[in-house]
Amino acid sequence: MTNLRSFAAAACGLAAAFLLAGCERPPVESTQTGYRGTGIVQVVNPRIAAANAALHAAPATTPAAPAEGPKARDVYQNVKVLGDLSVAEFSRHMVAITEWVSPQEGCNYCHNPANLADDSKYTKVVSRRMIEMTQHLNVNWKDHVANTGVTCYTCHRGQPVPSNVWFNPVVETPRIFIGDDAGQNKVATQAGLSSLPYDPFTPYLEQEAPIRVGGPTALPTGNRASTKQAEFTYSLMIHMSSALGVNCTFCHNTRNFATWEDAPPQRLSAYHGIRMARDVNNAYIEPLAPVFPAHRLGAGGDAAKANCATCHQGANKPLFGAQMAKDYSGLTALAQALAAGSTLPPPLAEAMRSVMYFDTGSATLHGEQAKGLAQLIATMTATPAATATISGYHSASGELAANQELAKQRAFTVRDALLAAGIAEQRVVLDKPLQTEANIAGEDPVARRVEVTVK
After folding, report:
1. Tell me: domain 165-212+221-312, CATH 1.10.468.10, correct?
2. Which long-range contacts (CB under 8 A, 24 or more apart) does 64-70 make?
3. Is the pLDDT of residue 333 over 90?
């Protein structure tokens, strides 16, 4: 009987071990990506990676069509983007964009089937601007997208509206609170279900709130920002970590999170990514709010904007780095050639007046244009009573509302450059010109400018 009991106990033990082994999850995978002792390690959960594999699979690319032959703009009516493509290549681009954005709805999602040139559908107006945005990202934001680039599929993944977008929150503070609760102690999915501020996007991906809040010395001296500002920053960092499916050490050195020394190269890419998202939201998406119907807007009347998850969707490289864009010249090579062909005039850099020029669809000062304020800043520094008046302009090509917003963002860029140079904010005046178009028609580089006058 004793032997039988021992055998039964052993059998039960083996059965329990077998059952527990069946319930055991496979271990996570840890990879050291930085110097030993810095804690720069990436942890990957193989179950999550396997479950999301289909989401990050890039669709097949059709072979390029001949570039020779009539141009699309010369054959079709009202072609405002991609018109320099051959008719065959233009059609290939349209087929691909349809599959990327509206595979169920087809061409009719954007087009009036009775008149393809008709602009009455808001989706056509929006898609045209989004193509311009994609070209802009591939040409002017290589610091983030590199040579991989982006296509419509990067965000849409076969859906008319990308899965990960955000709206400005409209929240009434409960009466039991005094002051601003910053949206804390509520469910904050973008902050990892924590009690951190639930909206890290408005201050950083639309506005330009400072992100580096760490002080150089221990408190109470040397602190650069309040605890609440630090919590907003941490909320954004949690979002970025989740959006890319990485640890904090993907970008940071744990010996000192604030330092750039020995930080992984991804930190610089993330730095540009934050600014790229801000550029996209302010120059391309938010100006389209008047175009969208009410059901596509947020509670506050704003358009659905982009954050890190819109493109990345849980992968440190969208689509695991699949290089789709290189196969569509209208989004990359052609856009690059057009940008190179429209050389900007040199900036006017005088002691009392400056004029700086911008690339198509861009609110960023590049190259020599960024030096156009040097003499004017010297004048204002030497003359404390002087004020600077800033006016932004745009070309006549494209949608008026979007162009006017872009002209405003360009003026903001120049204003911020003056503030960064130490000019007091009260000495800088933004003056909207009565007529913002400087040319009658077309894409005129001279019209894409900001003028600054010292008085």
Report:
1. yes
2. 64/89, 64/92, 64/327, 64/329, 65/89, 65/91, 65/92, 67/329
3. no
